[in-house]
């Protein structure tokens, strides 16, 4: 069953590291084994945006932490079955590498494996404003099977804090994997009467 399979979470160096942290926390809290891969740039962003304890904290929650240079890791093979992969946040560099199948590190290779095996790959592309090269890379990734899910706040939920925005965004990304784990995705929109 998909919900029992591990989920790969990649963090690249774009801003928005707190979303990746929350994705790991939610998946691990739901009993889903997280295979974590963090780029060198993401390590720096985590320290700057979340704090020096962020990486050790999510590494402690993950079932496996894979070094970004380990191209021979389990998640680099299609024979290693997963429930999907989320890259949160996804830098333009990582997006571009995924879109062009330039699997020069484990994060990009794992994403490429998800695409070739027709598994869900959610890319939380974090950049603004966008130029045409960014948009073309997103289109190319979408054409080969990725789900492009920029971390855009859902203001209809009337968030009161940054944490509210991070929470909803992380849950929405997880929901795109269709893991069917009760309570993991958050409440569904039921119309105008559904106010927090």
TrEMBL record:
Protein name: Flavin prenyltransferase UbiX
Region forming the signal peptide: none
Domain of life assignment: Bacteria
Swiss-Prot/TrEMBL catalytic activity: dimethylallyl phosphate + FMNH2 = prenylated FMNH2 + phosphate
Positions annotated to bind dimethylallyl phosphate: 156, 172
Biological role stated in the UniProt entry: Flavin prenyltransferase that catalyzes the synthesis of the prenylated FMN cofactor (prenyl-FMN) for 4-hydroxy-3-polyprenylbenzoic acid decarboxylase UbiD. The prenyltransferase is metal-independent and links a dimethylallyl moiety from dimethylallyl monophosphate (DMAP) to the flavin N5 and C6 atoms of FMN.
InterPro entries tied to this protein: Flavin_trans-like (IPR036551), Flavoprotein (IPR003382), UbiX-like (IPR004507)
Pfam families reported for this sequence: Flavoprotein
Cited SUPFAM superfamilies: Homo-oligomeric flavin-containing Cys decarboxylases, HFCD (SSF52507)
Provenance organism: Thalassobaculum fulvum
Flavoprotein domain mapped to chain residues: 7-168
Entries under NCBIfam families matching the protein: PRK06029.1, ubiX_pad
Residues binding FMN, per UniProt: 13-15, 39, 91-94, 126
Keywords from the named record: Flavoprotein, FMN, Prenyltransferase, Transferase
Keyword field contains Flavoprotein: yes
Family indicated by similarity: Belongs to the UbiX/PAD1 family.
Lineage of producing organism: Bacteria, Pseudomonadati, Pseudomonadota, Alphaproteobacteria, Rhodospirillales
Single GO MF descriptor: flavin prenyltransferase activity
EC number assigned by the record: 2.5.1.129
């Amino acid at each position: 069953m998909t919900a029992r399979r591990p989920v790969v979470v990649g963090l690249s160096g774009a801003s928005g590291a707190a979303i990746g942290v929350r994705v790991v926390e939610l998946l691990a809290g739901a009993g889903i084994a997280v295979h974590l891969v963090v780029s060198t740039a993401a390590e720096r962003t985590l320290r700057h945006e979340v704090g020096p304890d962020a990486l050790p904290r999510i590494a402690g929650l993950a079932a496996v932490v894979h070094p970004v240079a380990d191209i021979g890791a389990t998640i680099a093979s299609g024979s290693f079955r997963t429930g999907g992969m989320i890259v949160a946040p996804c830098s333009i560099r990582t997006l571009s590498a995924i879109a062009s199948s330039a699997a020069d590190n484990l994060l990009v290779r794992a994403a490429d494996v998800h695409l070739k095996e027709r598994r869900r790959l959610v890319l939380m592309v974090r950049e603004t404003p966008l130029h045409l090269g960014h948009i073309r890379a997103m289109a190319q990734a979408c054409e080969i099977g990725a789900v492009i899910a920029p971390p855009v706040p859902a203001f209809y939920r009337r968030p009161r804090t940054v944490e509210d925005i991070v929470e909803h965004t992380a849950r929405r990304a997880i929901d795109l994997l269709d893991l069917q784990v009760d309570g993991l995705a958050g409440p569904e929109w039921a119309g105008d009467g559904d106010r927090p």
